[in-house]
Structures are given as structure tokens and as C-alpha cells.
Structure prediction request, 170 residues.
Amino acid sequence: MARPDVTIRRATIDDAAGINAVYNPYILETAATFETTPIDEASRRRWIETRLANPRHPVFVADGREGIAGFANAAPFDERQAYETSVKVSVFLAPDAKGKGVGAGLYEALFGALNRVDVHRAYALIVAPNPASVALHERFGFRQVSTLDEVGRKFGRYYSVMWFEKRFEA
Prediction:
């Protein structure tokens, strides 16, 4: 459960800058995402708009006293039609929100929403090593199904990606 000073809610267009404030440092400073260019606010607003239009792809934010402390979202697994009931999920937290239950609170909200729509599988891609992320995903019923060895290169080195799967039963 999230901390009492954080409210978990669905994201709005006005959360674009706050989401970027959490996410862009991951792009610039870590291999947790394979994006390499920071996301501008207009692009983030469009990203949120597309998710507001599809109940399978919600975005939730942890809104704290000092702004957005983290976000979780579901995205298309693949744009091809046959994959429509499979989603990729992720959660990103501001540094001061880690280890305080914020990620779990975001995932509780996200998976609660996904349980109410036609989603069959959720996939999480975790850049190795990341024991905290593995533990969070396993807590929510994910199991590792694959590892792609040295599939991405960032900061001049190769990284492997662990694939985790969560099953939603009808």
C-alpha cells in the first residue's frame, strides 16, 4: 500500500511534466529503460492522451506533496491486432519514493484496472540485474519466462532483459 502522503490516481494530461520529471532521469542516467533521448512535454501529453482513449492502457500516478512521485502504466504489447489483449507494464519512481510502498500502490491500482477490462496477459521487461524490480513483479504474480541476453546497448555496454509474465484469468 502506498504511503499516506501519496495519492494514487489516474493520470491526466496535466501530469505530463511530473511524469517526465520522474522518467527522464532514468533515460539519461540508467539502463532501466532503453530510451536514449529525454521525452519532451508535448510528446508526453500525446502519450497520455492515447492511454486515456484505451481502457487496456491506463496510467496511474502517485501524487505526493512535492508532485509526482512515480507512475505505472500498461502499453500495447505489440500494435498488431491479435496482441490486443496482451500488455506491457512498467512502474517508475522518483528516488525518494523507492522502498516506501509507492510502487506497490501504483501496481495495485494498475492491476485492479486491468482486471476489469479484456486483458489476458501482462508482460514486464526488466533490465538485469534489478532484484528490487524482480521482487515487486513476483509479489504481483509475475513469473520469469525468458531472458534476452545482451539485447540492448546503452552507455557503451550491453544489457540483458528479463521477461516476466502475469496471467489474468477470465
Observations:
- The beta strands are 6-10, 59-64, 67-76, 86-93, 121-127, 143-154, 157-167.
- The radius of gyration is 15 Å.
- Residues 16-29 form the longest helix (14 residues).
